[in-house]
Structure formats: C-alpha cells, structure tokens
Design brief:
This protein has 152 residues and is of the alpha+beta class. The chain is 22% helix and 31% strand.
C-alpha cells in the first residue's frame, strides 16, 4: 500500500484532549477503509503565519499512514467537512523517516554551535577601530570638483 504523511490544523479553542481526539477519529476512518496509521504526533498549539477563519493559532497534528488511495480520499473528505479542521495537507512519500519529525526534535546546543562565533563575523569576533583615512579600498582619488557654487 502507498505511504502518506498528513498534517492538519484544528481550531485553537479546542482543548488538547479534543485535538488528540480528532487524531483518533481520523485514524479509525482510515482503519475502517483498509488503512492504518503507522505513527502520529501531536505538535501542540502553534502560531500561524496568517489568520485562518479568524484564528491566529491552531492545534497541529502529524500522521504517517499506510493506506490505499480510497481510504485517504475518504479521510480527506471527512476532514474538509469537519468544522474543527481548518487546513489539511497530504503528501505521498516513498518511505517514512525513522524517529521523530523535525518539529519534534529538540535543537541541541552542540548542533547550533556557539551563538557568537557561528555567525560569520557578527559578534564574538575581534573588532578593529579605523578612521576614514585608513580605507585601503579607496586609494588616491586626485582632484575632485567642488560642488559648492559653480557647476558648468
């Protein structure tokens, strides 16, 4: 059977238990139609980039499924009809990645590196004071016209 990954956003005014109940509800829809949920993650309430149906935040959920296309279509149809679901995204994948999704992984300080030293010259580096006469890229410019009064 084909492998899919689904992300859906539900309304912000739901409780965590209700949002996780939606995951279970759509999992049973898949199971009734011959598919199964391999793994799921509840990402929690996150702020969205723009308002959707007057909601600034939403409950995010992620499902990894192994289901026939007909089961996925039925689940998507029911998601679109459900009042609490605001957005859905379904992607067909070749294989499911092992371990937690990128959203669930914690950033390790060792992976990010030093906050000052990893920014390519911004902060943490050695600072050198110089004056305008100490600019090696300018060179001698010779005589320049004055822009005072007489421009012909």
């Amino acid at each position: 059977m084909p492998l899919y990954e689904h992300v859906f956003i539900s309304r912000q005014d739901l409780s965590n238990a209700q949002a996780e109940g939606l995951i279970e509800h759509f999992s049973t829809v898949l199971a009734d139609n011959g598919g199964k949920v391999v793994e799921f993650e509840y990402w929690g309430v996150k702020t969205m980039a723009y308002k959707i149906n007057k909601n600034r935040k939403g409950h995010y959920a992620f499902l990894k499924t192994d289901a026939p296309a007909a089961a996925v279509l039925e689940m998507e149809r029911l998601m679109r009809l459900h009042d609490d679901v605001m957005r859905i995204l379904t992607i067909k994948v070749d294989t499911h990645a092992d371990g937690p999704s990128v959203q669930m992984q914690k950033r390790d300080d060792r992976e990010r590196g030093d906050r000052d030293g990893d920014r390519g010259g911004f902060g943490g580096g050695e600072r050198r004071e110089r004056s305008f006469g100490d600019r090696p890229d300018r060179g001698d410019r010779g005589d320049r016209p004055s822009f005072g009064g007489d421009r012909r």
